User: What shape does this take?
Amino acid sequence: MRILLTNDDGIYARGLAALYEALSAEADCLIVAPEIEQSAVGHAITLSRPLMVRSAAKGGKFLGYAVCGTPADCVKIGIKELAGPTPDLVVSGINRGANCGNNVIYSGTVSAATEAAMMGVTSLAVSLDTHQDADYSFAARAARRLVRYLAAHPSLSGAAFNVNVPFLPENEVRGIRLVRQGRSRTIETFEKRMDPRGNVYYWMSGEKATGPHDMETDIGALAAGYITVTPICYDLTRYAMLDALKNLADDLL
Assistant: This one.
């Protein structure tokens, strides 16, 4: 099996290193990742400047390709130019911080996986539910189990999956649940500041609104201690409204 690895935390991120260690033992893995952190860039791609690509090393050994671009850029150029034959799988992560609920739309980690699916390659986005300096080994082993499952089920070829792993001791993780994407709400605030030259700038922060969690969603199941798996796609059509708006064109003429 040939796997393309990427992330949005940058090519030297610990989560990516843990993923490579777990998967390279049984697959041919190639890292193509952003040169610097690209968190929350969503599905952005680079059009106004060339994509600079360099070979990156760690400990004197080839690590992979560092791209001066976004996670989606990395997947595009990785599949089209750097990987040789099309990889069997793209795995993005392991992200520092969960990507569930509304966060999915902003996530560079998840967008790398959806880009791969758009290109016809099966993909996983994997995130660990902490922003602390963490041990990613359990999350990496969970990703390896899912990779094995996808390899054994060719009917899932071309699909994308968003995976979130709770930040808990392994013996406290309650299992794996297949869930839908939840709807989370972040209450955002902007702190007004002034730089030494008198220019005003704003620093955004925010906190998630609290409330009851639906166990059938990624938010609720993750909070309850489950690894969550959500099949995702890039079709943003709101199908439930198509019938309600079927006369729209006629009414506006």
User: Anything to note?
Assistant: The domain at 2-183+212-252 is CATH 3.40.1210.10 (Stationary-phase Survival Protein Sure Homolog; Chain: A,). Residues 51 and 68 are 6 Å apart (CA to CA). The longest helix spans residues 137-152. The helical segments are 14-24, 71-82, 108-118, 137-152, 218-223, 248-252.
